[in-house]
Structure formats: structure tokens, C-alpha cells
């Protein structure tokens, strides 16, 4: 029995969704593991890991465009296999940093920063090459649907990761831990290797190269350029630049969910609430955001039936969602209760993720046969927004602590636990204000984002 074109597309979509899930499994686990890693490395708090968080984003940004360009030239099959093998190895290596072997210690914070930099370099290009695969296999009217499912899958896995981590590493009152945090990283790295084996057997770059397809998929025309990276085109394309600015702002506000949120909840609410509830709320922005991704694709289709204008539909949804994010962070800043704070953060993630399908489908409209490198350029700028958030959040909180030590005329390490906690709280309050402002600016950016007519 031959495989139909439609069923073949959904096999490809399943592969891309599962890859997105593994991507978020390996990304989110570092944030959940941060308190244990900081303790094992002898650090004062998770804010001392700011360069480990930031190095991932910086490497991701540096290597994103070259890897996306290579995806356009060589095809997503070869690039995705290389990408997943590389980042899986770095995930496993994260688990051995600071390990004591007799009198030997396998590195410390500096080594962790290097490994996370290499992790970011390896993972760079994953979503641009996923986007290239979707471009090759799906017709334009299904792009938002496909992108929404890919991002929904990643967010859903990211949301489940804290609960999975609790079951595997920390355990509960009724079930013991199965492995330590190092073993979990080794296991997560193995998952990526298994995916590569399946992907190599099943996937091909184009449907026309699969013998079991009796009919070619009615996708957009295939044009692959083997010329150099189109820097001039990217740096002077106003629609692409506006989209990149928007994506950087969205990532700035969203990065908190996979970096500082786990440690923030543990520090501020641990003891007052159950660890299980905190674990659920830690992952909630991602698994609720997963439904935001799916809802966004549906809402755009619904709006398009009414206004008969895809560009306007995306703009209406995007502006409304960004204003919703700003409102949610305004509420979160005033919240003293775990439930109010977390529900506000979760709803902000939901609103933000409603725009993911629209943003990436817009990039496909603009990029066309240059889609992987266009997506890489957009994701690079977006990643720099996340990198800025990771560095600035840690810096602002540390400055608040230093200010408190100065006021008390004592060294930072001599601050009482209560004084340190209060000063970190005020530091985070200022950080949350920047999120609110950024989302208001992002709402305005949607006025500048326009789709590209087919070339």
C-alpha cells in the first residue's frame, strides 16, 4: 500500500513535532536543575548561573544564520541530524560538569558556561531547518497550522519537564527519586540520539524523492540557492527587520519562563506551598502556552474567514495578544499570592504563544526560497532578546542585593537570609516592569509587520 501525499506530510509533521519536544526537554531541564547545579558547584544562588544561561543564547544567535543557510543549500535532513547529535552530546556533558572523581573535579562554573555555549552552538538552526522542512512538504495555506503544532509540541514538553524532573530526580513524599540530576542529563541526551536514528530512516528533503508518493505534494516551488549568505537582502529588508524586532521583544518577555522562574518560585514560595504545586506551576507557562500556540493558528483562520485578509488577521491577533501579556505582567507585579502570580505569568505565556504560528508563517511568506536563512536571521535576533533578558535579569537582581549590602554597610555574603530575599524580590519587581514595557512596544511593532506577496 502506497503512502498518500497527505499522510506523508503528517509523518513529516510528527517528526518535526517530536523534535520540537526534545528541543524543549533539553532546554528547560537546565532551568529546573539550576538550584541543584548551583549547590553542587558551590554557588550562592541561581543568579550566579546568569552567564551559563546567557552563553547558550549567545552561541545560539552566533551560529543560527550559518546553519539556516546551510539548511537551504544542503537540505534539512543532513543539518537536523548534525544539530540533534551535537546538542544531545552537550546535554549529556552538562551532567558531568563538577563531578568529583576521587581528588579530581571535572570543571566548575567556567566549564558549565563553555558546555552551555557549545550546546547553543549545536542547537542553533533547529527551528529554521524545521521551517525549511515544512516549507518543502506543506502548501502555504497549511503553514500556520503546521507551525502551531510544532510550537505547541515544544511548549507542551517544556511544561511537562518540571513534573518529569520531580519524578526522576527530586521524588515525592510517596515515591523516591530514580536518578540524580547528572543521570537525568545523560538520559535526556540519549533521547536525541534515538530520534536521529528514526529520522535518518524515515525523512527525505522533498516529497518528490520518496518513491511511495504517487502524487507530488502541492507545495510552493522549490528554489535552492547555493550562493553565499544573503546578508544585504536580510539587512535591508524592512518587513523582515520589523518581524525580527518583534520576535526579539517577544523572546525577551518569554525567556523568564525557562531560566529564572523555577528558582524564583522555589525561593519565594517554598515552604508556604507544596513542592508538587510549585512543580506544576513551574511548567505551567509552557504547557498552557502549548494550547496558546494551537489556539493562535485556529484564531487566525477564524479571523481570516471574517476579514478576508491574512495580514490583517495576524495583526489583530498579534496586537491583542501583546496587550494581554502586558496586562498579565502588570497583575503579576502586584501579586503576593502564589496562585495569582503564577496564573498571571501563565496567561502571559498563553497570549505570547498565540502569536508563534503567525510569526513563523509570516517569516515563511517573507523568506520563500530563502526561508531557512530568513528564519535563522529572525531567530538570531529573537535569541538576542532572550540573551539580553537572561543577563539583565541576573544583573538587576544582583545589583539590588549589592545595594542592600551597601545600605547595611556589610559585605554581600554577610547579608541575612531575609535581607537577601527581600532585596532579590525588589530586583525581580523591576525586571517584571521591563517585561510589561517590552510587551507594550511589541504590540506597536505588529503595525509594522507585513506579509510578503509570493515572488
SSE inventory with pairings:
Layout: H1 5-40, H2 50-74, H3 76-94, E1 100-101, E2 104-105, H4 109-123, H5 126-137, H6 143-170, H7 181-202, H8 231-235, H9 238-254, H10 261-269, H11 275-307, H12 310-334, H13 338-353, H14 356-367, H15 371-408, H16 417-445
Antiparallel strand pairs: 1-2
Overview of the structural elements:
- The chain has 455 residues and is an all-alpha fold.
- 75% of the residues lie in helices and 1% in strands.
- It has one domain: Growth Hormone, Chain: A (Up-down Bundle), CATH 1.20.1250.
- It contains 16 helices and two strands.
- Helix 1 packs antiparallel against helix 5 (126-137) and helix 3 packs antiparallel against helix 5.
- The longest helix is centred in the C-terminal third of the chain and has 38 residues, at 371-408.
- The model is unreliable at 212-225 (pLDDT under 50).
Query: Going by CATH, what is the homologous superfamily?
Result: MFS general substrate transporter like domains
Molecular shape: globular
Alpha-carbon Rg, integer: 22 Å
- The secondary structure category is mainly alpha
How far apart the termini lie comes to: 37 Å
Count all strands and give the number.
2
Widest sheet: strand ordering: 1-2
Order of helices and strands: HHHEEHHHHHHHHHHHHH
